[in-house]
UniProtKB/TrEMBL annotation:
Short name of any one Pfam family annotated for the protein: Lactamase_B
Protein name: MBL fold metallo-hydrolase
Bilayer-crossing regions: none
Keyword Metal-binding attributed: yes
Organism taxonomic ancestry: Bacteria, Pseudomonadati, Bacteroidota, Cytophagia, Cytophagales
Length: 217
């Protein structure tokens, strides 16, 4: 079974996720932990539950999702996986981080690249990598078919979608990818978003004002 634990970190109220199997193999997704207290909260959960963090994944590389990248890589001795189109996005964070008040930001770099359709092992479980650009040029989501769970970053939110006014954003592309990729998943699929509460595909198909049946185009 795949378990997903969420933490809400940093001033952007970003959701960081740990996905792990029954044997304790784990991946860390979008570590937004920036302060010592946030990092201690994450570590305490890992230690209490006897987890072994084996990989670090970024759905995309905007600042709020990568604040803990460098720390996590060193703390757990793990490689970072991102989509190749996110390399420049990740690199730019070290330039603009001070503008957001993160003067101690430590940059990180990718060790491996994720590809569309790739199956990523989490112990005995498998996450499928789905390519959903629009909010960011190399945005991916991680779908666990067996349990119907999807870590979706900043693509789809409860009643909303990711912003597309940042560099590399594309509004029409994001709408298209939500409709053709995410909405192809079963209605009961749980969406774990990069901010805010979880939602379900079936609910968003009907009620999301941007892409749902009741959306005004």
């Amino acid at each position: 079974m795949l378990h997903i634990k969420s933490f809400t970190f940093n001033p952007f109220q970003e959701n960081t996720y740990l996905a792990y199997d029954d044997q304790g193999s784990a991946v860390l997704v979008d570590p937004g932990c920036h302060t010592a207290g946030e990092r201690a909260e994450l570590e305490n959960f890992i230690q209490t539950n006897g987890l072994k963090v084996e990989n670090l994944l970024n759905t995309h590389c905007h600042i709020d999702h990568v604040l803990g990248n460098a720390w996590a890589k060193k703390r757990f001795g793990i490689p970072l996986w991102i989509h190749e189109k996110e390399v420049s996005v990740l690199k730019s964070v070290e330039v603009y981080a001070p503008n957001y008040g993160f003067h101690g930001f430590e940059s990180s770099s990718a060790d491996h690249f994720l590809s569309e359709g790739q199956e990523f092992k989490v112990g005995q479980e498998m996450l499928k990598v789905l390519f959903v650009p629009g909010h960011a040029p190399g945005h991916v989501v991680f779908y666990h078919e067996k349990s119907g769970q999807c870590i979706a970053g900043d693509t789809l939110f409860r009643g909303s979608i990711g912003r597309t006014d940042l560099p590399g954003g594309n509004h029409e592309l994001l709408l298209n990818k939500i409709r053709t990729v995410l909405f192809s998943l079963p209605d009961e699929t749980i969406i774990y978003s990069g901010h805010g509460p979880e939602t379900k595909i079936g609910f968003e198909k009907v009620y999301n004002p941007f892409v749902g049946e009741r959306a005004v185009y």
